[in-house]
Amino acid sequence: MTIRRLAAVAALVGLATVGCAPVQSGPTNSAKDTKDGTLRVWLFDEVNRAPKEAVVNEAIKEFTASHAGVTVDVQYIQVNSRAERFKAAFSDAKSAPDVAEFGNTDLANYVAAGGFADLSGDLGGWSEAADLAPKILETGKVEGKTYGVPWFVGVRALYYRTDVFTELGLQPPKTLAELAPLARQIRKAKPELYGISVGGKYTYGMLPFVWSAGGDLAKADGGKFASSIDSAQSRAGLGRYAELIGEDICPPSACAPNGGDASVQAFVAGKAAMTIGGDFNRKAVEAGAVKGKFAVVPLPGETAGSIAPAFAGGNLLGITRSTERRTLAKDFLQLLAGKKYQRQMYTAMGNLPTFTDVQREVSGNDQFTKPFIATLEAGTRFVPVTPAWAKIDAQTVLPNMIQQVVTKAKTVDDATAEAAKLMNTAFTS
């Protein structure tokens, strides 16, 4: 699962990313469309909720000022309990929200459960929708229909220590092939540092290596998926990533057990010269031991000047099928997910906007965001859009595969063959 807020929480408290089990049941569309009363909204809670809550409260104030007789009740739910909460909501309309925030990797599962309404027609009547970044909008779609409006997006890039690079007379890598030799050189010169901090369970750090090599998680044929993680290209990408976890770069004893959160935290603590981190890690890095001593560049691709495809994480806002306030839900969703409040959420939380014009605006005013926007513009990738992904995620198929390779418990070929078999079982079950 890749929910950006969970990543932010985990970066601070070391929480492991948790998979989402499949949600089974769903509601029917409501025939009612009440124009007053209480609109119920679920949003994810935060380690520090205050900045998010302040923006949401301002949106509520604006919304209720133009909708007489309407109140908005916001519940901030825990990310880790979301599967149970949504399952119960989809089974009982009385407990369901009208509008909800959810992670984009959960979308296919929730749509299969019948939980969220098709918003395709609503987007056609919303002028701002024309500026939603197409690749990001795709993360809110299932079989061509839009069920979630992207509220923010999260991508990863290469953080590096400017003081270390200056001291050693180094430059950031121009290709992925340069990354391991560079990290090895740094570790040799400064053995107290990891050349780069990555992890044996860091799925979203590994995927750009697979995609850059021409590999993929799965291929679709006629709406059916088959794993391709065991292709020659995918194996080459995984092998290149695994090279980073070795005594001469990032020792397996320290790095093999790590997911993305622990990998970034090592950089935050001043233990590593580089890491693959998200735009959402900014506040943690700036509050850590490397404050004022780091910069970010896009993770390079196979050739100089290219950018490795990044996973497009992020959260969506959707409308439940059971809502009895469909028009109010649409109006509030379009207000909160619109440009005005995406700008405010960027200022308050650092959330990258999903509108192309707002992305250009914020990157023009903030050097930090430029490599992330460049990564978005270069093209992002996503997990297979199928309810089966919830099973694959819950079974930790990919983290287990990576760890088997970096600990040398299995060869790349054997680990990917096993992962492909488990993925295909999920795809066909």
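The above is record 1. Record 2 follows with the same two-line structure.
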Amino acid sequence: MSTNGINKALKLQFGLINYENRYLTAEAFGFKVNASGNSMKKKQIWTLEQDEQDGQVVFLRSHLGRYLGSDKDGKISCGAEKPDADCRFLIVPQSDGRWALQSESFQRYFGGSADYLSCFAQVIGQFTQCGTQTLRPSVRHRWEISVDSNIPWGVDSLVTLVYADGKYSLKTCDSRFLSNDGKLVKESSNSTSFTLELKSGKLAFKDCDGKYLSPVGPTGTLKSGRCSKPGKDELFDLEESHPQVVFEAANKRFVSVKQGVSISANQDVETDMETFQMEIDKQSKRPYSVLMVAHTGPCEVNTMFDIEWRGQRVALKASNGKYICTKKNGQLSAVSDSVGDDELFLMKLINRPILILRGENGFVCHHKNSNTLDANRSVYDIFSLIFNNGAYHIKSFDGKYWNVSSNGLVCTDGEKSEDFFLEFVEHGRVAIKCSNGKYLRGDQGGTLMALLSPLLPNHANLTVTSSCSINSLPTELLCYGDPSPCSCTSIVAIQAAQTVFVNVNPIPTIYLNCQRCH
């Protein structure tokens, strides 16, 4: 359900960890489940779905699209294509942040180890408690995080949700952590660690003193309040967010809606009025755009655009089959049959300062014993994304840059930066093209390489971080690769900043929306 009439609520994805620190795993053969996973990969990812009639009841769906269930004898199964009475569970939160899963139908608790799983315990004990690790790792932050906006806009709205030792921290885009007193600090500590709780499908953050984060005061400063039980002000929703971009036209001016409803390339400075939101419809894979008005209904044909990737520039084709061009006075019109200088735009992604990538086989991470990158890891590394005249430089935590060797290996020891191009080929997916025209590929062998040309399905589709927000507090998120074919021409939607918000995104995002504001 959308809480602001603009974005749809996301379903939680996470891993479940038992008392032996093993992950609940869904096997493809026989749809069997066990608790034997050492790390969180595809088989260990579960999606939490709420019952529409009873918000306390949840369903757990595996990566295979089948639902976890238990019969009256406590026997566990995971083969149901649709949730039935045996698949209904209640979440019983524990004081240390762990969960106990209780069968609603039979009032027994789920637990166990290895292949010996059951849902037959009458009381909560060591064997029936599990930890959670969320998968999706606008807040205005200067020296504090303020809940003061209905929609996250710009880079200062980004926050990363960091998981460590069963607790979560909120990390801003300038690498500071939110403390429970509302201050932003450079180092993580006990005061920056929060337990994530689920209440009727909404999230609450409990600090080390048992108090909950909430917006406080006239500025909506996010800090721990006095409540030891979460109420309306302490609950947050997960909602979808989208990449935001700035367009520079051939006249070296930024495309803007500052002058009103009409759109012109006539500004010298980037502000919210020069920021647009890119969106892709999940179902039809057609884009839509809304300018100047809120929109929640079906998109119209004339709001759809195709985006064509042309090296360091992009061209936009309108629904009438014509390309958008920039006139001498800066006005934009969809009247061109072909692409020339006036039809090309520099597109700059402004709300993704960091990059986390996941391919078909796992996360992208530094290789332990070399300067290369693995693309099949269960843990991820965070990289910096630096814009450079239509291209991007990717920098590792040690200050060295990504570069492509003569044999196609992607290395992370470059002293000088190398150009990479991001092509948003589908909802939540991005292809990365190197300066030599090859696309990055992660294979099952685990090595990230620049070998694909032209772009092929699966291996070149990587996922990127997106932003999340707590009422306008973004936190970082991850999305997944797609096995379907992609092309170098993607359809996107463009949304202006001025009281305008719509849905769809090549790099997804989520918002954590404060209930007080909706």
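Residues 75 and 118 are 5 Å apart (CA to CA).
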